[in-house]
């Protein structure tokens, strides 16, 4: 509560929605401000408030409770207030209940958090004016296959997974993508996760001749494999998905590859980071994406010249605190944000030559 009060004190009270200000960009902010996701929802609120202050916008914040009922109620309020655009939503249930109402009202949505593929894949059928600032659910899987099939084209590589839904889908997508590139792994298998050692698996990998191994699973399991490979004298490089970042205390082997999104704070400009610092708000989680969404809304408002913002969001470059953002015709990011990172012995850094 002290953090919220500090921000409101810094930014002033003029961010409250003023229907009389016809030329002011008005933004509805939908976020879970109660319940188990409240911490993430507050990140959206703080980022949107800072963005509003920097872009001369007015905002109306509503708790969508991460539920269908909350999403529909938030949408109804925004429609009644005639906001220009809505920023937010973290839960599929909330945004799917809100979109029919917002579509009817002609209000577009920029969501920083909902990854469900069908949200934009069904656009031709639903006509929902939703634009996704975060990645699609399949973005990580697509990037893993695309990046590693290029890096490992001339190497004997293996693909293993831990049998979980996440690990299996990641590994299967990897195999499908490399096969499209006329490549084939020398070894595939499903391993038992959370083991103290993976000597048996490493032995089979070495026997198959694998020098590079993609692991669909947890970072700790990957680290155990790399440790055991070193003990057995097997020269193997390991790679995994963004789950590696979640296990920040794992002793990864230098050179380990991770397919993940850049941290928003790592690509944000200094001016914006200084703004967050002055407001005593950490630029973490959904705070920066919400800030960027407001920036995009502001630029779209200027481009619209009185037309609905829906018509100015697709197939257009927006200059933001984190670089150029462009949405495709479906509302997804035009460029997959996932890339390869290499562990340098201390942290994961962007792989050169991307």
UniProtKB/TrEMBL annotation:
The keyword Chloroplast does not apply. The keyword Signal applies. It comes from the Bacteria. Residues 24-344 form the Leucine-binding protein domain. Keywords: Signal. InterPro entries: Leu-bd (IPR028081), Peripla_BP_I (IPR028082). PANTHER family: AMINO ACID BINDING PROTEIN, LEU/ILE/VAL-BINDING ABC TRANSPORTER SUBUNIT. Belongs to the leucine-binding protein family. This is Amino acid-binding protein.
């Amino acid at each position: 509560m002290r953090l919220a009060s500090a921000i409101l004190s810094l930014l002033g009270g003029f961010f409250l929605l003023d229907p009389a200000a016809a030329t002011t960009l008005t933004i509805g902010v939908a976020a879970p401000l109660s319940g188990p996701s409240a911490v993430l929802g507050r990140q959206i609120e703080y980022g949107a408030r800072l963005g509003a202050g920097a872009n001369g916008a007015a905002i109306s914040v509503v708790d969508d409770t991460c539920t269908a009922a909350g999403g529909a109620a938030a949408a109804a309020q925004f429609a009644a207030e005639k906001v220009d655009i809505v920023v937010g939503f973290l839960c599929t249930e909330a945004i799917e209940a809100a979109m029919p109402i917002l579509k009817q009202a002609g209000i577009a949505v920029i969501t920083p958090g909902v990854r469900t593929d069908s949200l934009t894949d069904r656009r031709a059928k639903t006509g929902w004016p939703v634009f996704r600032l975060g990645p699609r659910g399949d973005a990580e899987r697509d990037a893993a296959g695309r990046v590693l099939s290029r890096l490992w084209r001339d190497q004997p590589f293996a693909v293993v997974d831990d049998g979980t839904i996440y690990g299996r889908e990641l590994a299967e997508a990897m195999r499908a993508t490399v096969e499209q590139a006329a490549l084939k792994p020398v070894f595939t298998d499903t391993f038992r996760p959370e083991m103290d050692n993976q000597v048996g698996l490493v032995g089979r990998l070495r026997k198959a001749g694998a020098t590079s191994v993609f692991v669909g699973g947890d970072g700790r399991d990957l680290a155990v494999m790399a440790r055991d490979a070193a003990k057995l004298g097997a020269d193997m490089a390991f790679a995994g998905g963004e789950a590696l970042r979640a296990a920040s205390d794992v002793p990864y082997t230098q050179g380990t590859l991770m397919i993940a999104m850049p941290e928003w704070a790592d690509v944000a400009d200094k001016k914006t980071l200084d703004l967050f610092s002055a407001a005593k708000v950490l630029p973490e989680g959904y705070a920066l994406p919400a800030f960027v969404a407001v920036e995009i809304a502001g630029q779209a408002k200027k481009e619209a010249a009185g037309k609905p913002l829906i018509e100015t969001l697709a197939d257009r470059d927006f200059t933001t605190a984190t670089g150029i953002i462009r949405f495709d015709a479906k509302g997804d990011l035009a460029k997959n944000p996932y890339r390869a990172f290499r562990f340098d012995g201390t942290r994961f850094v962007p792989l050169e030559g991307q």
